[in-house]
Amino acid sequence: HRDLSDEQSALLNARLILEAKRELAHSTQSVKQIAHGMGFADVGYFSRFFRKHAQCSPSEFRLQAQAKRQ
After folding, report:
1. Which of 11, 13, 45, 62 lies most in the core, judged by the most C-beta atoms within 10 Å?
2. How many CB atoms lie within 10 A of CB 1?
């Protein structure tokens, strides 16, 4: 059962990161607003979570996404 739980967590985390990336790339909301909108009470925790899974901070990701659109 541990493997199934780990797989479910991985899928949920991947979905959260995908949604966060979409919001960061296409929204004018602050990182704090996005974090709270996704259910994170603490923007610091959201930033650590994002960095762990995306290998960059939310702000860095947003800058990269904006640069690609130009």
Report:
1. 62
2. 5
Show Cβ contacts of residue 8 under 8 Å, excluding neighbours closer than 6 positions: none
Q: Collapsing DSSP states into helix, strand and coil, what is residue 26?
A: helix
Q: 31 and 43 in contact (C-beta within 8 Å)?
A: yes
Angstrom CA distances, 9 to 4, 42, 63, stand at 9, 20, 28
Contacts of 26 (CB under 8 A, 6+ apart): none
Question: Quick one: which H or E segment has residue 22?
Answer: helix 2-26
How do residues 9-62 score in pLDDT, each as one tens digit?
999 999 999 999 999 999 999 999 999 999 999 999 999 999 999 999 999 999
| 3 state SS of 14 | helix
